[in-house]
């Protein structure tokens, strides 16, 4: 019975006073990711060449969250389940280390991908992270793959695969075919790594950390970012790229001030994205968090055409349409899940109630009685 009461409490609380925060987290994910990607492309286009520095700025912005964390932690109480004793310090450290190393490596792959790909192509390939997330969630989070979800995954897979046949490397910054393929593969790998990291975060919240509180979310963001930042800084110095940063800043086309401001705002916007993404994992699921990120898919290519004059050929347009179709399929499945869940809990819903039983996005069938 405890599970049913907890879910009902969350839905009631969300309907009562969580609308603004829910909207905020969605906007954090979409705007943070879109702006950060555009800034990353701007860095490369104006003389930036350090892949490890581009990785560092994705991660080191977490200290800006500390004042908010310290100021707000006392005002947030535990409103979610507590499945027993808090995780031991050893288990916490292992979780943060494992996720931090994975996120650090994943961000480096993204940096390589963005270096040689047009930003519109890069963002469309990144839509495949939802498919990877669903795959890993099936094994790690007991995510049920309904026909609608499978349709979504198929569309997203086809969308990304089409871009492998997109012959645009000749028209982009004199990039060789080898560099284009390398970036394409790294972006696919980064999307897979990101999908895995989201599923592992959800697994950590439910199986290891257990206590679903505001401090757990902030600890996850801060400590994972700290570990990932250390990994990227070590990579920056081990690769020797740090030695070229001074000359890179001097030769930056937009000037030294713009160089610094680009890096600073890239760091901040990635943390805005991080807050929204982690909170959605905490509240709902890793797959839903990823789906909201994919919702920003049309934003980046449009901005890329306006700012960087990327070419939107027919193959890209088809890829975008398939990706949006795949995303909408997932959203519809989530709508069915939410509608049936509210019905099983006796919460009034709008619209007809003749839809067939859907399986919950958390990976368990909707039941009217608690397990």
Question: How would you characterize this protein structure?
Answer:
- This protein has 371 residues and is mostly helical.
- The chain has helices at 2-17, 19-45, 51-56, 66-72, 89-116, 119-126, 129-140, 147-162, 177-209, 214-239, 245-250, 256-283, 286-295, 299-308, 314-344.
- Residues 1-17 and 351-371 have low confidence and may be disordered.
Quick description:
This protein has 371 residues and is mostly helical. The chain has helices at 2-17, 19-45, 51-56, 66-72, 89-116, 119-126, 129-140, 147-162, 177-209, 214-239, 245-250, 256-283, 286-295, 299-308, 314-344.
Helix share bin:
over 70%
Strand content: under 5%
Largest sheet: none
The shape, in one word, is globular
What would you call the structural class? mainly alpha
User: Which regions contain 5 or more consecutive residues with pLDDT less than 50?
Assistant: 1-17, 351-371
- Give the number of helices: 15
How many strands in all? 0
Order of helices and strands: HHHHHHHHHHHHHHH
Averaging pLDDT over every residue, what do you get?
Answer: 80
Radius of gyration: 21 Å
**End-to-end distance, in Å?**
7 Å
